[in-house]
Amino acid sequence: MTRPAAFNGYADPHRHAAGLYIGGNWLAGDGIAVIDPSTGDLLVEVADAGVDEALSAVDAAEAAAAGWRSTAPRERSEILRRWFELMRERAEELAVLISLENGKALADARGEVAYAAEFFRWYAEEATRIGGEFRHTPSGAHNILVDHEPIGIAVLITPWNFPAAMATRKIAPALAAGCTVILKPAAETPLTAYAMARLGEEAGVPAGVVNVLTTAQPGPVTAAMLADPRVRKLSFTGSTGVGRTLLAEAAKSVVHCSMELGGNAPFLVFDDADLEAALDGAMIAKMRNGGEACTAANRFYVQSGIHDAFVEGLAARMAALKIGPGYDPQTQCGPMITPQAVDKIDRLVADARARGARVVTGGDRLTRDGFYYPPTVLENVPTDAEIAHEEIFGPVAPVYRFRTEDEAVQLANDTEHGLAAYVYSRDIMQAMRVGRRIDTGMIGINRGLMSDPAAPFGGTKQSGLGREGGVTGILEFLEPKYFAVEF
Ligand code: NAD
After folding, report:
1. Of 176, 206, 241, 343, which residue is least crowded by CB atoms under 10 Å?
2. Could you read off the pLDDT of 438-465 as tens digits, one per residue?
3. Separation of 215 CA from ligand 1 center, angstroms?
4. Distance between Cα 435 and ligand 1 center (Å)
């Protein structure tokens, strides 16, 4: 399918190329090429902000801060609720836009828009429930009163793999808490961020409360914002490597950090698992977004008794997927984000093969326009292969065989990451026991999809700091203030 010549409403990329959104103004610019990964063609250019524009965004966020923190929680809540409603009304247009700039299959893009919008609904509800504490000192002689205040101006940095959801998962709790924000989306997928900013304007978000800027120099631009004493919070989602750099940068001015970083999720299948359910879960955990998800199953550990049937079933399902442009409604596996992403996947598969892995399906890059890699299943993968230790971020499922529960737990924990893990077993006692022994922030028990706006999302080890979503997500944008009160 070739790309349609025109797209309706918010799906039209040209509509979002107006440029930076600072203090309620749209500032035209260019310099960042947004590419359609389905073809490799240019979609549009967007503005490339420098340090001056970034500091104007901080000025705008500062100018709006006092008004927003004193806006009644009910009113903040209603604005977020309207933003949710507008996203739902424009859901199909937003989904097409995401597919266009990110490449993901339309079904995945629709899922992302629904998930992303739910953060506005959830935090519209949480905005009116920000609590405090009152207690007596143990001696009984004094009182402790704790208020939760907005933490201050927040810089939000998001990746390209969920251009809508990673932004709303930060904007919604920040605004609910009473903070003003500067969003820096990934340069690969800026259009969705700008489209959502327009919807925020329509929903009644006051000028300067949400600012959006795109830049081709994220290092110096972010450093300048973090060095500004008015910025008190950095919320970052992206790779562990960039997260480490930003933690060091934030340390210079002791800026509060939330970090949602990379993953290397193990997917464990025990002998007594329901095979069909495990295969259904595996397809979701592996293939949502074509494998470009931080929670993506990166290592399949399958017990000896069910191993061969699992490999056969997984290979059949992977081989049947229809590859194509994300915006073609028939597509089940879209392109990767960049040619470099395809090169990396190819390198990991070549390394595994060189070490003795067998390709069950896929395994060779495709010769067609766009940045495609075919759904691939590998078996007999040695555990020292690079693919066992790096995020694949693509449609490749390496399968490893294990014999005992202890061995499975040891293999699952053999990583610096600790974001997500999956366990399939009909024996719920075993599944929970194994789940407790795996060092991750999230565990799917007989489920291949765990993301839920009402649940705390985040990782242990080098997968991050803090949690997004759920009742605790808003705490990342609140600072406790203790009043020692004599009365
Ligand atoms: P990335 O780290 O390359 O980029 C993420 C963001 O950081 C982008 O906006 C990018 O422009 C910006 N950035 C890059 N270098 C920077 C610098 N020096 N200073 C400031 N900002 C900088 O990650 P990516 O390739 O866009 O996304 C994929 C990664 O994100 C994967 O590792 C994935 O696991 C992770 N991820 C994690 C979660 C989570 O919730 N834990 C969710 C989605 C993606």
Report:
1. 241
2. 999 999 999 999 999 999 999 999 999 9
3. 14
4. 27
